[in-house]
Amino acid sequence: MTAVEPELAELHAAAIEFLDAAGNAESVWAVPVAPGKWSPSQQVEHLARTLDGAANVVDGTPSPFPNLPVVVRPLLRIFFFNRTVKRGAFPRSRTFKALNPTEGPPNSAAAKARLDAAVQRFEQACRGRASSGETIATSTFGTIPIASYARFQAIHIRHHRKQLPVAVRV
């Protein structure tokens, strides 16, 4: 068992928790939770796009994440990535335009299929990469451990679970 397996199990659990909570939002599925915020459907699409992009990073293929200057990456790694992984909480932040969905899956069943596929793709990329090394080079944070990247993704999913309408988060 590689070091990434416990973090992938945590990612999988976070996705299930999110989908269970989002499944309770069918009556408000396409309704933004507040002005300028996303609907549960859009949140699913954002998470799936993020995981798809993260899988590309792990695979070493082009991703929607910005290619930041090399001198900026250690700062983002220290002040954003490492802090998020250590605290287990995602700070308030804005996403990149490519990850900002205008719409998402039409219902919770389609959302489950979309997010499950993205989680599975990310897990496969991490397992494949972990077999040849424990770190990845990212265009945003520089070189980071794969296990920490998986943990970061789980924290991101849980961050969005907290953003679901209050009535469905229980």
What do these coordinates show?
By secondary structure, the protein is mostly helical. It is built from 5 helices and 2 strands, in the order ααααββα. It has a two-stranded antiparallel ribbon with strand order 1-2. The radius of gyration is 16 Å and the shape is globular.
TL;DR of this structure?
The protein is built from 5 helices and 2 strands.
What are the key terms here?
about 55% helix; two-stranded antiparallel sheet; about 170 residues; mainly alpha; globular
Mean pLDDT figure: 91
Low-pLDDT ranges: none
Our estimate of the beta-strand percent is: under 5%
The shape is globular
Please tally the β strands and state the result: 2
How many alpha or pi helices? 5
Radius of gyration over C-alpha positions, nearest whole angstrom:
16 Å
**Ends apart, CA distance between termini:** 33 Å
Largest sheet descriptor: 2 strands, antiparallel
User: What is the ordering of alpha helices and beta strands?
Assistant: HHHHEEH
Question: How is the secondary structure organized here?
Answer:
Blueprint: H1 5-23, H2 40-59, H3 73-87, H4 108-130, E1 135-138, E2 142-145, H5 146-161
Antiparallel strand pairs: 1-2
Helix pairs in contact: 1-4, 1-5, 2-4, 2-5, 3-5
